[in-house]
Amino acid sequence: MSKTAVALFAALALQGAAVAGQLDPANADAAPAGTTAAQGQPMLQRLDAYAPQIIRMADQMWQQPELGYLENASSALMQEELRAHGFQIEAGVAGMPTAFVATAGKRGKGTVIGLLAEMDALPGMSQAAVPRRQAIAGQDPGHACGHNLFGAGTVGAAVALKEWLDSSGTEGEIRVFGTPAEEGGSGKVYMVRDGLFKDVDVALHWHPNSRNSAAQSISLANISGKFRFSGQASHAAMAPERGRSALDGVEALNHMANMLREHVPQETRIHYIISNGGGSAPNVVPASAEAYYYVRHPDPVVVRSVFKRLTDAAEGAALGTGTSFEFEQTGGVFSLLPNDTLGKVMHSSLQQVGGVEYSAADAAFAKELRTHLEQQVDISEAAKIAPYSVDGDGFGSTDVGDVSWAVPTVGMGAATWVPGTPAHSWQAVAASGMGIGHKGAVVAAKALSLAAMRLFSEPELVQQARAEFERRRGKDFRYEPLLQRESPPLDYRK
């Protein structure tokens, strides 16, 4: 186990959770080798036939990128496709209009498997599907995290699994969770908090990436929110003494936050933007201004502590500038809880599927785009599967983290982007809207389907994953979300 993992579990013990130990050596390699090629081949053929529908959905979402909690068309598209294939839909769950749960199969004594489907885009990331920087006129957001592929690939896996359950007579239930606002809105946290995962046995997810990997790593917990300062407007030259600049409050907070960086635990990440600069004329003292902050660390206890210090800094900034402020929390997520049992199942499935094979057009696109990347990685890496590992360090954050503390959870990444591409970049948007992204989404759908098929067929693996989950989580663990607000911030992107 990494040092980060040890620190995480030790910190959670302070919240009442027992420190989780290592897996029993006898169980370390207990997962069987995987679904045989003969068993899995019909599933792969089924998804090859369904691939055009995955691509159609992915492209529709890419062409109409929607921000968090505003994913009306994307959510409706996925619901429509699932309904057409016999899924029962419950829409608008957990107080989120674009969230849904789609259910198929028969419960009986079978396993219940949840599949996560993200859909939101990022602001300011408009980009055409070309290998050079080219924004799309009249469009601000873009799928810089590839959630158009995420949602479409998950739907494809769900449709294929339903057909397999029906044709094989296997008992079990599939639930697709349409999860909005992953990018800072923490949509899944509201779903966990409302108990939507309470009778799910295993949750599966995937994410666009620049390589194919089923490594199970720890992510960063985070808290995010907006500090809104209020002052007093006045003529900046004729009556400056009558003004109190809200922008001064924001700038004072930012200055103190930057000094704070020197005195926080090493793995802490603090990011901010000035989301409202306070007016449009320099000769008017700004009466309002806003800063939007993220604080991240592997340990949720550290995140809470650092954010408290940040809030104290905001109070000092307001006092020093004669302004006032209010804080609105927009998000808060746990770090990922890895599961080695499920990770090995997913790795085996991904190995059976194989990586992303480029066409000549894909390779030409990738070679040109690679010239705009800081990391020059050979494009042949897209066809490879990364070695498996567990308990590694990860520096992103995701609301899948909260799901992973509620139910045994496993994820994987598929090479939907040119090797070396960072997430949240124009290069990621470009590849997410063309053949490279399409092929990666199909690889993910296949790997998810094979993993789920195996878990449905081998309930002992589900039991083993649950036992590991309980050991890692600790018998005294009680879920207390980092997100402390009653209802989702449905307007946080407006």
TrEMBL record:
GO MF annotation, one: para-aminobenzoyl-glutamate hydrolase activity
One matching Pfam family: Peptidase_M20
Domain Peptidase M20 dimerisation: 223-316
Protein name: Amidohydrolase
Signal peptide: 1-20
A single Gene Ontology CC term: cytoplasm
UniProt superkingdom: Bacteria
